[in-house]
Automatic annotation (TrEMBL), chain B:
<dbReference type="InterPro" id="IPR024573">
    <property type="entry name" value="DUF3333"/>
</dbReference>
<feature type="transmembrane region" description="Helical">
    <location>
        <begin position="233"/>
        <end position="254"/>
    </location>
</feature>
<keyword id="KW-0812">Transmembrane</keyword>
<comment type="similarity">
    <text>Belongs to the binding-protein-dependent transport system permease family. CysTW subfamily.</text>
</comment>
<keyword id="KW-1003">Cell membrane</keyword>
<feature type="transmembrane region" description="Helical">
    <location>
        <begin position="422"/>
        <end position="443"/>
    </location>
</feature>
<keyword id="KW-0472">Membrane</keyword>
<dbReference type="InterPro" id="IPR005672">
    <property type="entry name" value="Phosphate_PstA"/>
</dbReference>
<feature type="domain" description="ABC transmembrane type-1">
    <location>
        <begin position="229"/>
        <end position="440"/>
    </location>
</feature>
<feature type="transmembrane region" description="Helical">
    <location>
        <begin position="274"/>
        <end position="296"/>
    </location>
</feature>
<dbReference type="InterPro" id="IPR035906">
    <property type="entry name" value="MetI-like_sf"/>
</dbReference>
<feature type="transmembrane region" description="Helical">
    <location>
        <begin position="302"/>
        <end position="324"/>
    </location>
</feature>
<feature type="transmembrane region" description="Helical">
    <location>
        <begin position="350"/>
        <end position="371"/>
    </location>
</feature>
<keyword id="KW-0813">Transport</keyword>
<dbReference type="Pfam" id="PF00528">
    <property type="entry name" value="BPD_transp_1"/>
</dbReference>
<feature type="transmembrane region" description="Helical">
    <location>
        <begin position="36"/>
        <end position="59"/>
    </location>
</feature>
<protein>
    <recommendedName>
        <fullName>Phosphate transport system permease protein PstA</fullName>
    </recommendedName>
</protein>
């Protein structure tokens, strides 16, 4: 009988859902930009601690749908979302939900690296600071260090945390943005074509990072690169003309998709 | 069939042409470009020429106002005349008017001339003393009232020379013109020459031009910009304190928070229109609202400041909105993405990035306000003010003048010496404007960040 083993057993399990459990669930989601019906009847289950890739031709609505998950579409005046999206069975479009609080739970990484024009440290520390995650300066230092480590940037920047974040290379900037998102300990991280502005080497690093982040986070990534979807994701969803065409295991999707349109898109017949 | 052959010919034509020799079309295009460049260069040259002409005329007229002619005299402050009861009581000294001081100056001048052996034929002591400004007895009196203990002593004073004598050393008055002039004579000018040789009469830098208040028509040599500079400074202070926070707050609300509807569209159009409203209209508004309705005093910097604030607000709002719009949306997204509220994203990220634009707009607005004349005329700032306004904030309600109004005022006066003063005031105004623009450039460099 091992006492330490006992202790571990009774420690409450951290609030990280087991893999493959549903984290985000969308029911009959419709999105309108003014009169334009941009997303039609999307139903999808996004699994916890899984990388889900959204693929599809330009303008198919994959980014729009991604931005529904942390209500970034609220910032667009003409945009209207109907239906139900829930995270851990809580409807995020409930009138009682404050989108600001939601976004602390659902982080986002954008297409173009967009670090604040401040120091590397300030970039990562901003989120924890506004959410009051650090009581002391030393706590903040720890959070920043750990976020940079998780983003695989620590060794490159630990000696120059005070230099501007905008002075880093494109790939480093994007990893800085990932660190910034990670620093507020979100449960879901949304990535909108995070590698589209990066060269292949930087892309490889970010992809490796996504792979590691899967251990702790639910990741949804929009990508135009079929190879990238195949490399990083376990689940893939194919969008076309605002519809969710098919959602499946990535392996199946790229070898034997159910839908003809997916087959055509993957084979490069359109899009 | 024919179409194909035509197309084929053209293609062949293009292919066979050598690129070493430009064809007619290329030559025409090049000629058009050359013509455009020429017109552009001519336009720039005309602009530069106009600017050089303007500056040359202002500087040639105005630079001399920074020098002034003085007569240095040892004046015996005769107790028998200045303090008859011998009490040295400022109240009783003040009873002696400036006329009581004139004989002292005449006597001092006569003594100085006698000591140096200067005499001029056909001139009595009175005519000789006209070399000295009518302002001199007044400044002597002010000195005595301030220092009653010096009565009975002989004190050395730098007294202003009269405007004509000053003008003689600035080339404005000549022997010929003096012969026709009621206010001076060739003999006086000759006397001035002798005094200069004797070292009694000197010309040096004119600090009084920046500190002295305005003076009446007959003594241009005593007039200065003191009250006008103070009045303009007070107004700029009021404009800055009111219009920067108001303008920035209004822009942030309109740009970031206000819903986009007909009402905000209307406001937007109106702000753009307000920026184009003739400034004199703001003067009428100020007269009606601030003076007649609110009962604020006339000629006061507070009213001028409020009117100029109204004028500057549209400029600041337009510049601030443009600066806010220029901040890339990715920065807002980034802040919102980590869970910042809208207000946090604006105040922590957008506003600092927009700061260079906001400051530039504000300073340009202030510079405009500094040079504005028309609305100030309507609210009574054109008045002749010799009293300095008190220190702020009380001084905001005291009568004052303003730099551009002082320029306008001086150009209306008869004595040509005021033309020189007006040009000098324009130079001072231009220097202030250049300084403000420099500050704008420095601030912009300072706050500028790359993203």
């Amino acid at each position: 009988m091992n006492m330490s083993g006992m202790t571990t057993a009774i420690t409450p399990t951290p609030k990280v859902a087991a893999m493959n459990e549903t984290k985000v669930s969308a029911r009959d989601v419709q999105v309108y930009y003014g009169d334009k019906h941009a997303i039609r009847d999307v139903n999808i289950e996004i699994r916890s601690r899984t990388v889900t890739a959204f693929i599809g031709p330009s303008g198919c609505g994959k980014s729009t749908f991604l931005r529904c998950i942390n209500r970034m579409n609220d910032t667009i005046a003409s945009c209207r979302v109907e239906g139900n999206i829930s995270i851990d069975s809580e409807n995020i479009y409930d009138p009682k939900v404050d989108p600001v609080q939601l976004r602390a739970k659902v982080g986002m990484v954008f297409q173009k690296p967009n670090p604040f024009p401040k120091s590397i440290f300030e970039n990562v520390a901003y989120g924890p600071r506004i959410h009051g995650l650090a009581a002391k300066k030393s706590d903040l230092d720890d959070i920043v260090a750990s976020a940079l480590q998780k983003a695989g940037l620590w060794n490159e920047v630990k000696d120059r945390l005070d230099s501007p974040g905008t002075g880093l290379s494109g790939g480093q900037q994007q990893r800085l943005c990932i660190a910034r998102a990670v620093a507020v300990s979100p449960e879901v991280i949304l990535m909108d074509e995070p590698c589209s502005a990066l060269d292949p080497i930087a892309t490889a690093k970010v992809e490796e990072l996504i792979h590691e982040l899967r251990e702790n986070f639910t990741i949804v990534i929009v990508t135009h690169s079929m190879q990238q979807a195949a490399r990083v994701s376990q689940r893939t969803a194919m969008f076309h003309l605002g519809n969710l065409v098919e959602e499946n295991d990535t392996d199946k999707m790229f070898t034997n998709p159910d839908d003809q349109r997916t087959q055509d898109y993957i084979m490069g017949r359109f899009g | 069939m024919t179409d194909v052959s035509v197309f084929g010919n053209v293609a062949k034509d293009i292919q066979t042409k050598s690129i070493l020799e430009p064809d007619a079309r290329t030559r025409r295009r090049n000629a058009a470009e050359a013509r455009f460049r020429l017109w552009g260069a001519i336009a720039v040259a005309l602009g530069v020429l106009a600017l050089v002409g303007l500056l040359a005329s202002i500087f040639s007229n105005g630079l001399s106002s920074f020098r002034q002619t003085y007569v240095t005299l040892d004046v015996f402050l005769d107790p028998a005349k200045l303090d008859k009861d011998g009490s040295r009581d400022p109240a009783s000294i003040a009873k002696v008017s400036t006329f009581g001081y004139t004989p002292l100056i005449e006597k001092a001048l006569a003594e100085a001339m006698a000591a140096k052996g200067i005499s001029v034929d056909g001139m009595n002591a009175k005519a000789a003393s006209e070399l000295i400004s009518k302002e001199a007895p007044a400044s002597l009196r002010n000195h005595v009232i301030a220092n009653p203990s010096e009565i009975g002593e002989t004190v050395s004073f730098d007294l202003l020379a009269s405007g004509r004598i000053d003008g003689y050393y600035k080339g404005r008055v000549t022997m010929e013109s003096a012969a026709l002039d009621r206010n001076t004579s060739p003999e006086q000018l000759q006397l001035a020459e002798r005094l200069k040789e004797a070292g009694i009469l000197t010309t040096r830098f004119n600090w009084d031009f920046f500190t002295a208040p305005d003076a009446s028509d007959t003594r241009p040599e005593a007039s200065g910009l003191g009250v006008a500079i103070l009045g303009s400074a007070y107004m700029m202070l009021i404009v800055l304190v009111l219009s920067l926070p108001l303008g920035v707050a209004a822009s942030i609300y309109l740009e970031e928070f206000a819903p986009q509807n007909r009402f905000t569209d209307l406001i937007e159009v109106n702000i753009a229109n307000l920026a184009a409203v003739p400034s004199i209209v703001f003067g009428i508004l100020g007269l009606a609202v601030f003076i007649n309705f609110a009962g604020l005093p006339q000629s006061a910097p507070i009213v001028g400041g409020l009117v100029l604030t109204l004028m500057t607000l549209p400029t600041i709002i337009i510049a601030t909105r443009a600066a806010l719009k220029a901040v890339p949306p990715s920065i807002r997204d980034a802040a919102l993405g980590v869970g910042a509220s809208k207000m946090q994203s604006i105040f922590h990220h957008v506003l600092p990035l927009a700061m260079p634009g906001i400051l530039t707009g504000t300073i340009i607005g202030l510079a405009q306000a500094l040079g504005e004349t028309a609305p100030l005329l309507l609210i009574g700032m054109v008045a002749f003010v010799r009293e300095y306004p008190a220190g702020p904030p009380d001084g905001f309600f005291d009568p004052a003048s303003a730099l551009p109004v002082q320029v306008y005022n001086w150009t209306q006066r008869g004595d040509p010496a005021f033309v020189e003063r007006a040009s000098g005031a324009i130079i001072v105004l231009l220097v202030f404007l250049i300084l403000m623009n420099l500050i704008a450039i420095i601030l912009r460099r300072r706050f500028e960040r790359r993203w």
